[in-house]
Amino acid sequence: MKLRTLFLAAALAGLAAGAVTAAEPQEVREGLMKKIGGSMGALSAIAKGQKPYDAEVVKTSLTAISTSIKAFPDQFPAGSEANSEASPKIWENKADFDAKAASLGADADMLLAQLPADPAGVGAALGKLGPHCGDCHQVYRVKK
């Protein structure tokens, strides 16, 4: 009985692992963008005074932006254009797309190294990060 339970648990774990790794690139990149958007929203709430300054929230948000944007360009393999808000221009000019992501990542890392210390600093950080988002979305996102 124990061997059967162990086998069943191993089989279920294998299925679960397969389900995690089988995610479509469109789903992965959507999840990454949601992390970035949520982090920008948390920073914005602090900058606007809607939430109190919290260094841990700032650090967590900047870390999420940094790690997510660094993983983002890898989620655009050939053939993943369908069912997406991604513009075909990504695949036509991948080097520029990758450079834009790298630039946002570098700025997020710089801000992590010198963590904004108050709401005004968070607002200045958003002033540095926000244009990256708009610049990329203007060129590489198709609105539905």
TrEMBL record:
Residues 1-22 form the signal peptide. PROSITE patterns: CYTCII. Heme c binds at C133, C136, H137. It comes from the Bacteria. Keywords: Electron transport, Heme, Iron, Metal-binding, Signal, Transport. Binds 1 heme group per subunit. One of its GO terms (molecular function) is electron transfer activity. Transmembrane segments: none annotated. GO terms for cellular component: periplasmic space. One of its GO terms (biological process) is electron transport chain. This is Cytochrome c.
